Amino acid sequence: MRRRPLTLLSDGTLSRRENTLYFENAQGKRPLAVEGIYDIYIYGHVNITSQSLHFLAQKGIAVHFFNHYGYYDGSFYPRESLNSGDLLIKQAKHYLDREKRLKLAKLFVVGGVKNMEKNLKKWGMKVSFNEFLNELEAVEKISEVMNVEARVRQEYYASWDETLPEDFKIVKRTRRPPQNEINALISFLNSRIYATIVSELYNTQLSPTISYLHEPGERRFSLALDLSEIFKPIIADRITNRLVKQGIIKKEHFRNDLNGVLLNDKGKKIVLKAFNEEMQKSVRHPRLKKNVTKQRLIRLEAYKLIKHLVGTQEYNPLVAWF
Amino acid sequence: METYPENVLLIRGTEINYLFICPTKLWYFSKGITMEQESEYVDLGKFLHERSYFGEEKEVQIGSIKIDFIKRGNTIEVHEVKKGKSMEKAHEMQALYYLYYLKVLGIRAKAILNYPKLRETKEIILDGHEEEVEEAINEAERIKSLSAPPSPVKSRKCKKCAYYDLCWV
Ligand code: SF4
After folding, report:
1. Can you say whether residue B153 is alpha, beta or left, with left for phi > 0 and alpha for psi between -120 and 50 degrees?
2. N or C end of chain A: which has fewer CB within 10 A?
3. Predicted TM-score (pTM) of this structure
4. Does residue B5 have its Cβ closer than 6 Å to ligand 1?
5. Average pLDDT, whole number, for chain A?
6. Ligand 1 centroid to B39 CA: how many Å?
7. If you measure CA to CA, which chain B residue comes closest to A307?
8. A biological process (GO) annotation for this entry (chain A) (predicted)?
9. Is residue A268 included in any domain, yes or no?
10. What span, in angstroms and rounded, lies between the C-alpha atoms of B46 and B14?
């Protein structure tokens, strides 16, 4: 059975009786087939019994929590089951060696920038980020890498407005709290992507705490931040644009709050459905010569990183061919 | 005790098996870089530490393989149940390695490979194969000591291999 993510949007209680997990909400109590669960994303107010957490730990299922606004709060990351001392040492070595770290940091940004460029082309805009990429090649500090990335992103978001409907112009990318609908959508999806990457890393021997572009400790799972550079454009930005341009997400799916503009429950539901469907979509992988889901692409990116770290093959970030 | 096997024979049975399937797989596996399907492999070495085990009749699960040790008079039979013969050489070498391991422990044994699907069995005796096992051990140790995994070589085996995505992405 292919294990799938479970998203809990409603309020309720997660409990365990013997070898069955139950979710009880206003609609009633239903058993969850734990063998079919890959990981769990909790958006509602959910009470969780410690027995159910024990059970999930046993099964190696990570649980991700999102706050009231839909932003990532934290994860229940069961005691790691997959470990490789050898890989951990190599991961750390690549962090400690300035050249090695810089190289990886740049590669994450290169991947992100190329994916942004790809998106703009898809949306019918003629934009080239080549100059930025050349600049990136020459820089020698992580802070400079970050700086180039930030400038590309600015230009990238600015061009969105050319194709976005009137009601949904991005104007400028505000972070928390988002001041407009598009920003709210992007932030909501980025949170989810981050958690999804954390899950994928949990299922490899990579330590999520050692990262290259972002400073380890910036967030607990900073390697997920590094990898999200690659996936934010091809997952979150594409879903955002599609939902808005096709009128699937409308003004009415947002609410104003002291904390800015936020998705309401209906809006969250629509976006999460789109996200889950997107992640299960397959694309033909040119190297593996088989179909893989978008979700699987994250794992494959982790494998590429492992190969870079152990020294079989240089990391070559995913640039969307689809 | 110099001949304490866990001090000399640090190679696991699965590793000898993988040596004859694919050195790349052996390297990754030995570094703890396992794929989902493989993460449940129990280490026979660890298991053999429990000396008290001998003399009983017991069934041991090693991943998808079952090993029975059966004591019959002075010889012990190591049984292994295998799915098919496509990896026959690897199975045989793994069995020989167990026998070698037991011999170092001072235990004479023979192994029986069981292929229930094919309704066949094959008896494996160590005598005369010691050198071959030692060579395999040395080769496995050499591969494990490499700083990077041996480059993968595409073969028919890759298709069914759990490491496929890692090797070829
Ligand atoms: S995919 Fe092929 S090369 Fe890679 S470990 Fe498996 S058998 Fe070896």
Report:
1. beta
2. N
3. 0.89
4. no
5. 93
6. 16
7. B166
8. defense response to virus
9. yes
10. 12
Total number of domains constituting chain A? 2
Do A94 and A25 lie in one domain? The reply is no
CA angle, A265 as apex, A264 and A269 as ends, to 5°? 115
User: Does A235 map to a domain?
Assistant: yes
Q: Are strands A37-42 and A4-8 parallel, antiparallel or unpaired?
A: parallel
Is there an atom of ligand 1 within 6 Å of B91 CB? no
What's the per-residue H, E or C state across B1-27? Answer: CCCCHHHHCCCCHHHHHHHCCCHHHHH
Confidence of residue B107 (pLDDT cuts 50, 70, 90): confident
Residue A289, phi then psi, degrees to nearest 5: 55, 45
Residues with Cβ < 8 Å from B68, sequence gap 6 or more? B57, B58, B59, B60, B77, B78, B79
Higher pLDDT, A78 or A304: A304
pLDDT value, residue A179: 80
Are the C-beta atoms of B164 and B24 separated by less than 8 Å?
Answer: no
**DSSP string for B130-155:** HHHHHHHHHHHHHHHH-SSPPPP---
Q: Between chains, do B39 and A81 touch, taking CB under 8 Å as contact?
A: yes
Taking the CA of residue B42 and the nearest CA in chain A, the distance in Å comes to 14
If asked whether residues A41 and A182 sit together in one domain, one would say: no
- Which residue of B29, B33, B43 to mutate against A (max A Cβ within 10 Å)? B33
Distance CA(A186)–CA(A116), nearest Å, equals 14
Q: What is the predicted ipTM?
A: 0.89
Contact A118, B67 (CB under 8 A): no
Question: Are residues A174 and A264 located together in one domain of the fold?
Answer: yes
**Residue A32, SS3?**
strand
Helix (H, G, I), strand (E, B) or coil at A106: helix
* Last residue of one domain, picked from the residues A12, A28, A61: A61
- The bridge status of strand A46-48 relative to strand A37-42 is unpaired
Distance CA A82, CA A108 (A): 24
Q: How confident is the model at residue B59 (pLDDT cuts 50, 70, 90)?
A: low
Q: Which residue's structure tokens are 């980020």?
A: A129
Nearest one of A268, A113, A319, A299 to A198, comparing CA atoms:
A299
